[in-house]
Amino acid sequence: MTASVTASIRERVQHIESMPAIPAVFLPLLNLLSGSGENVNVDEVVRLVSYDNTIAAQCLRVAASPLFGMALPPKSIKAAVISLGLRRVETILLTCCLGQAFPSKKWVLDPAVFWRHSLGCAMVCRKFSEKLGAADHEKAYMAGLLHDIGFMVNCLVFSQEFAAAMERALQEEIALDEAEHLTMGFTHCETGRALAEQWKLADDVIEVIAHHHAIEQSQKAQSLVALVHLSDLLCRMRGLGYGYYERHKVDLVSDPAWAILLKEHRDLEGVDLVRFTFELDEAVEEIHALVSTVFGSTLSPS
Amino acid sequence: MNMLEERDRLLKGWTVEILATDLNDRSVEAAKAGIYGDYALRNTTDYYKRKYFSIVDEKKLQVLPEVKKLITFSRLNLQDDSKMLFMKGMDLVLCCNVLIYFDGVSKSKVINHFFSNLNYGGYFFLGTSESLMKLNDQFHLVHFPGTIAYWKPSLKSGKL
Question: Which pTM was predicted?
């Protein structure tokens, strides 16, 4: 991709800033959560969330969903933090905020399908991370949730070009990033990166957004990028893809991402991928329900 | 039936032969008869029912001879090494919910037979939730949309 195309993407992405639907709490919260976590305190998160009752209420409902494991809805954000831990509540908040961050236009990509993939990938990343004994499971969740935000940019700023790419993917049953390359000359990785940089996300999350389809290009966060790459592939093979049939054979163990992860996490050898896949299948219905809960109000009626 | 559907498209030029086996003679006879009730046909679409079955009575359908003629039915004990050794040249092996009855050593032996009987590039399908974990490390686990299979890599892939 040429420098002029990159500059053009950046310029057009800057207009996203003026979108009215971004909750006021979203960007400060995202900045807060993108940090190391050491300097974040509960009161600061509670203060930020209390600005937006809708998000606070949604957060409490999501905390009670099977994906986050609370049997009864917590009575307050602070109660949720005490039960689930600050990191977990942060990711719930992020999920809810993201649901409101994009306007409910009729998108080229069905928003419900997009959110199911993103949430599914977030969940798989966290489960994978837990199995590997990685350091920060919630970081893995966040990376999974945000890895495809470039598709949102495409829907909002490059809708015509992206519609052609989507049509080609459907017709030829190929991967969406491949169709983007063929028709647009750039992909959601580049547009997502432009948005992530504008939002000043953490470097490792930007790496995931920019390189999850080309892990070898990742310099600083190869392990996290590899984790998201594999989770993304698995979701697309188990009914949490982009809503069309992708003719694709995926050999996760032979994927270069597997070798990258294996170097850092020997526990990967003991992961039974068949069992792991069925754990994902069991969660698919929960993900559908969660998408309705979190993103229901922003989804256009179909 | 799926293969007949694809004979002019994906399988154009292929000669399809199917070997269907069971340990139990009565099961083999039942398979030869090819008569199925509602429950067995709960996932079969009306299109397939109309095209490939004849009506036996109100509740039963029978597979048409044109489907059956692709299939050889025979009794086979998967633990019979002498027979298993000579079943070469398979492209596809489907063995659903059978290995669950075997102990670990027998499972490994049967799976090794399947592996050596498959052509390079061939596929082995197990039942839902069955896994080859710790039983065989020669097969590659591969995902297709909605399906998991075990693959014997082709020679040109350089994996074997």
Answer: 0.84
